[in-house]
Every structure is written in structure tokens, then in C-alpha cells.
Automatic annotation (TrEMBL):
GO cellular component, one term: cytoplasm
GO molecular function annotation: acyl-CoA dehydrogenase activity; flavin adenine dinucleotide binding
Name of this chain's protein: Acyl-CoA dehydrogenase
Keywords, comma-separated and alphabetical: FAD, Flavoprotein, Oxidoreductase
């Protein structure tokens, strides 16, 4: 699929909004205990995004979506500031949750749970990962320990979840649990007294409101009509969400690294040492040149994977390749930006140090590099067996 003029105009509008109205908020002190923007700050920025016509820009009037290649240029633009996806409502986990609800949710569930998310009035959380000490699901969802069982016209859910992004303060939850039929997904209103936040750890990243909570689910009763899709199909639905969501992470953090490289480039041209600008020293100039190469390769990988998804393919292998290639490339870019800027690069004087932290976490979130490589290696073996009998 091609990128329409409409999508390019949306991306340009988003970029202008982020550069002109969001970036000035980067020094705003309204932050929670681990440095993430408060909901007050998020909602203030969203009102400005609504007024500028760039709130949830990838979902069009009537509920249709931009295709993945078009979404890419919009989400890259929103990522030019760590606050941009929050302001424009293109952030994780909401963007992926909206995508899943749009694909699988019934009309009633869309009206009740999806519409407030698209409107930017609330946040959501996806309850899948479980604590390692409980032997629960992490990169291997088949280890799911959270259970659900029918009781009359309700499902009763029990378990413990961890690293649940945005759980604190969210208004919508998607909970994964296992029944006799297999994995199931449920939509719930939050807060709910049966879902208790145990603690919210301080983490290396600080861009997502609500942190990454550990929660206890104690006899959560969910009406049967709040199951998302069919019983036993939860893993399939999770893949519908996760393949595009991995790519969306790539898009947003590419935008952030483009901006970090702009800042490092400006610094290297203005700062002098040993009688000339830093950029004229080969060691610095070569790092910036390598950044351009990695950024361009990341753009091409995102565009290729988005094109595969636009064909209607699930694109699991392709999204794994993109996640590995882009996250590793952007880690190199962020690291070089810090190095070019020296002492300034490790301070909060610019967003460069935050981008470094966020991209380091990105290499783990939505599956660490090694899990994706392992998955691809298994596919190589399957394909070989299929070809050779």
C-alpha cells in the first residue's frame, strides 16, 4: 500500500504540534515518583492536541485506521518528544489496546471501552506478564498462572501480574487468564477492588504514566459478555495486538532518536575543543555519520515490516526482525548521542539521557532481542524441514 497525501499531511501536522507545543513541556515538573508525567500534565497536553486536531491522529473519523505504512510516519512524528505520544494519544499500551479492540471487540465493547480511549479521556493497561518468582508467564505466555472459571453468568479471575504498564490510574483493563478452553481475554473497568496494586517499582524508563505495576487479582468477577472474542483464543488475539504493537514501539522510539541525534549534532557543531568544532574531529563526526546510517536502516526496516502487515499477513516473523534490528540500531544511536555530548549527555539538560534510558528498556519490552532471535531460529528450522521433507 502507498502512503496517501492525507497521511503525509497528518504527519506534518503532528510534527509541527510536537515541536511547537509539546517540546516546551519537557521541563515541566509535574512528574510522579519515578519521573513519569502525571495524568494532570497528560490531559493538559491532550486538550492542546484536541484543539490542534492531532489527538489520536492514526484513527480517522468513523473508526477506520491509517494503514501501517501511514501510521509509521505519524507515530515517528509523535515520538520526536518523549511526551509526544502521550499528548497525541499514540502511546503504549493504549495504541496497541485500541488496535486490538478495533479488530476483535463487539459493537457494545467498542462503545463502552474503545470510544473513551480513542477520545483520549482515559488510559488502559494490558494484564499479561506475571512474576518470575511465581513461575508465571513472561516471554513465554504458555506459562500463564492466572486462572479464570465460569460462575453463573460471570467469569472469576485469580492471579498475580507484574510489569503492567499504566495500571495505576488506568480506566480500562484487558486481562489475560487461562481457562480449561485455553487463554481468555477480558475487558474490565478500572479501578476495581479485586485488582490491587502491590507495588510500582522504579525502573530505568520514565515516559509512561502509572509505571509498571505488580498487581494481585483476587476473585475478580467479570460479566460473561465482557470477554473479548471467544474463550480459548486469547493467545491468537494477543498476537493480533503484539505484532503491530512491536512495530509501533519501533516507530515512536525512532522519532525520539531522530530528535536526540538532532540535539547531538547541534552540540557537536557548536562546541569547540582543540581549536575546532567537535564535528570536525573524526571520532565525533564518524559517530554522527554512523547515526545517520542506523536511522535510515531503521526507517527502511519499519517501512518494510509495515508493508507486510498491510498485506493482511500477521507478520509475526517480520515484526520480530524489525523489533531486533530497530531496537539494537536505536540503542547504538542513543549511546553515540550521549558520547558525543560528553558530560552534558548524561544530564537532564536535554532529553538525550532519557532517550538512552527509554531505548535500553525498549530492547526488553515486547520481547527481548534474544527471544525474537530464538523464535526466528525455530522458524528457520521449520522452513528447512518443510522444504526437505
Amino acid at each position: 500500500m502507498t502512503i496517501s497525501d492525507r497521511a503525509r499531511a497528518i504527519a506534518e501536522k503532528v510534527e509541527a504540534f510536537v515541536r511547537e507545543q509539546v517540546i516546551p513541556y519537557e521541563g515541566d515538573p509535574r512528574r510522579d515518583h519515578h519521573g513519569a508525567p502525571t495524568d494532570e500534565l497528560v490531559m493538559e497536553m491532550r486538550e492542546k492536541a484536541r484543539a490542534a486536531g492531532v489527538l489520536t491522529p492514526h484513527i480517522l473519523e468513523g473508526g477506520s485506521h491509517l494503514n501501517q505504512r501511514e501510521t509509521a510516519i505519524v507515530l515517528i512524528a509523535s515520538g520526536l518528544s518523549p511526551l509526544g505520544p502521550l499528548a497525541c494519544n499514540t502511546m503504549a499500551p493504549d495504541e496497541g489496546n485500541m488496535y486490538l479492540l478495533g479488530k476483535v471487540g463487539s459493537t457494545g465493547l467498542k462503545q463502552r471501552f474503545l470510544e473513551p480511549l480513542v477520545a483520549g479521556r482515559t488510559r488502559s493497561a494490558f494484564f499479561m506478564t506475571e512474576p518470575a518468582e511465581d513461575g508465571g508467564a513472561g516471554s513465554d505466555p504458555s506459562m500463564m498462572q492466572t486462572t479464570c472459571r465460569m460462575d453463573g453468568n460471570h467469569w472469576v479471575v485469580n492471579g498475580r501480574k507484574c510489569f503492567i504498564t499504566g495500571a495505576e490510574g488506568a480506566g480500562v483493563g484487558i486481562v489475560m487468564a487461562k481457562a480449561e478452553e485455553g487463554a481468555c481475554l477480558f475487558l474490565v473497568d478500572l479501578p476495581d477492588p479485586a485488582i490491587r496494586i502491590e507495588h510500582v517499582p522504579n525502573t530505568i524508563d520514565s515516559s509512561m504514566p502509572g509505571g509498571h505495576a505488580t498487581v494481585i487479582i483476587d476473585n475478580l468477577r467479570v460479566p460473561a459478555d465482557q470477554m473479548l472474542g471467544e474463550a480459548g483464543e486469547g493467545f491468537k488475539y494477543a498476537q493480533i495486538r503484539l505484532s503491530p504493537a512491536r512495530l509501533s514501539h519501533c516507530m515512536r522510539w525512532l522519532g525520539a532518536c531522530i530528535r536526540a541525534n538532532e540535539i547531538a549534532t547541534d552540540y557537536a557543531n557548536r562546541r569547540h575543543a582543540f581549536g575546532k568544532p567537535l564535528v570536525d574531529h573524526e571520532g565525533v563526526g564518524f559517530m554522527l555519520a554512523e547515526n545517520l546510517i542506523d536511522i535510515k536502516q531503521a526507517e527502511l526496516m519499519i517501512d518494510w515490516c509495515a508493508g507486510v502487515l498491510d498485506t493482511g499477513s500477521l507478520g509475526t516473523a517480520e515484526s520480530s526482525m524489525a523489533k531486533v534490528a530497530v531496537s539494537e540500531a536505536l540503542m547504538r544511536v542513543a549511546d553515540r548521542c550521549v558520547q558525543v555530548m560528553g558530560g552534558t549527555g548524561v544530564t537532564d539538560k536535554t532529553i538525550v539521557e532519557q532517550v538512552f534510558r527509554e531505548v535500553r528498556a525498549f530492547r526488553i519490552y515486547d520481547g527481548p532481542t534474544e527471544v525474537h532471535k530464538w523464535s526466528l531460529a525455530k522458524k528457520i528450522k521449520r522452513d528447512w524441514k518443510s522444504a526437505h521433507g
